[in-house]
Design goal:
single chain, mainly alpha, Rossmann fold, two-stranded parallel ribbon, 7% strand, quercetin 3-O-glucosyltransferase activity, quercetin 7-O-glucosyltransferase activity, transferase, glycosyltransferase
Length: 189
């Protein structure tokens, strides 16, 4: 399964250099992104829309954090999609068809825990190096989709999918635990 025409495009985010080991204040990081990304994003859209090799941009998928993408969609009268809705549709689409390996780039909150489980305990993920470079992301995407390590991660993901499906079926471990929880709550409630 190859995607030879898949490409990443980047824009300047206006963020200062930082110590990769420092704790990052998300609110401080969101402010420069909100203030500085609209112009570079509009330039990228203009570049894409003027290229004879790329279809015209007709939809932008983003979330509230990337408000410049939302503003660009409004300015250019482009359909705007919410990534949360896309995530739900994506999850429905992959049900959960096969196990899916993941690429992890933990930043804050529960992402460190999710990374640890996906990459270390479950064996279904690959981590983005702290020194993020375009070629590193390209390598990870190709590796997880086509490489030997990606095939191993896919097999593990399929195993976990099977276990998860069994756990939530009637008589499965999660089903039994949830049923016991409800009975206890009703008994003491």
């Amino acid at each position: 399964m190859g995607l030879p025409n898949f490409q990443f495009e980047t824009i300047l985010d206006g963020l200062p250099s930082s110590d990769r080991d420092a704790t990052q204040d998300v609110s401080v990081l969101n402010d420069p992104v909100r203030k500085n990304c609209l112009a570079p994003f509009l330039e990228l859209l203009a570049k894409l829309n003027s290229s004879p090799h790329v279809p015209t941009v007709t939809c932008i998928i983003s979330n509230g954090v990337m408000s410049s993408a939302i503003k660009a969609a409004e300015l250019l009268d482009i359909v705007m999609g919410d990534s949360a809705i896309l995530d739900e549709e994506f999850l429905e689409e992959i049900k959960i068809e096969g196990g899916v390996p993941v690429i992890c780039w933990p930043f804050f909150a529960d992402q460190q825990t999710n990374y640890r489980y996906a990459c270390t305990h479950w064996g279904i993920g690959m981590e983005v190096d702290h020194d993020v470079k375009r070629e590193n992301i390209e390598f990870l995407v190709k590796e997880i989709m086509e490489g030997e390590e990606g095939k191993k991660k896919k097999e593990k993901a399929l195993e976990w999918k099977k276990k998860a499906k069994e756990a939530v079926e009637v008589g499965g471990l999660s089903y039994i635990d949830f049923d016991r929880f409800v009975k206890e709550a009703l008994k003491h409630g």
